[in-house]
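Justification of computing resources. Each target in the renewal requires a structure prediction run like the one illustrated here; the chain below, 246 residues long, is used simply to show the kind of job we budget for.
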Amino acid sequence: MQEPLKYEVEVQEDGRVELKVPLPQGTPVTVFVTQEPVDDFYDLLLASEDGLDLWDDEGEDWDEEEGAQATRLVADPREVERLAEEREDENWAFRDWIKLEFDFDDERLMSVVRELADDITAQIDCTQCANCCRKTTTEVDDADIERLADALGMTITAFQEAYLEFDEDYGGRWLLPAPCPLLEGNLCRVYEARPTSCREYPHLHNDFRAASISRISNTFICPIVFNVVEEMKYALRWPHRNRWRR
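Resulting structure tokens:
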């Protein structure tokens, strides 16, 4: 298989792109377009491994308005919740496919998820959302409790009584309830001392396949997770993806 070629060019008038390639006249080629230069274009890498057949579905036309953009970014938490509810059955079917049928090993799958998560996280301002703080309870361990109490100038017992709930399930654990009592507007009062679970949220750098139930559930809450799951459907070439859906 011939190695793919990469060009960085500007779009001309009327959306034209001109390329001069070192191939004979009449040679059929497949062209991938991405909006800006990137080092790792995951669709291209995945496609090159399988014979450059990413866009080979019969009867599938190019969308002139959207170009090669797989999905539009959705940042409004209310819109995210609406779309996640609309696509709930689809998302659970996608989860089953990843768990039971998709042939990437965990390491290779996570390389795609991490790349998508980093790209999408850079485009979303969490301080304009704070939906995770409003809608999820947060388990806190002893180190979290000590750090939070210290940040608020309280004893551990006083902090537990004022802010935490004790859950007797799973042997007993302390929880910050939802909405989080430490949230002021969209900002955390003790951001630098926030719990470990908050620091790691939305946990997309952890094993996606093993925690896929939690990840799909979080599409209702977190714009980052919602958008990552939508982009995964295209990056992994899920057979049932709706490629040109907005």
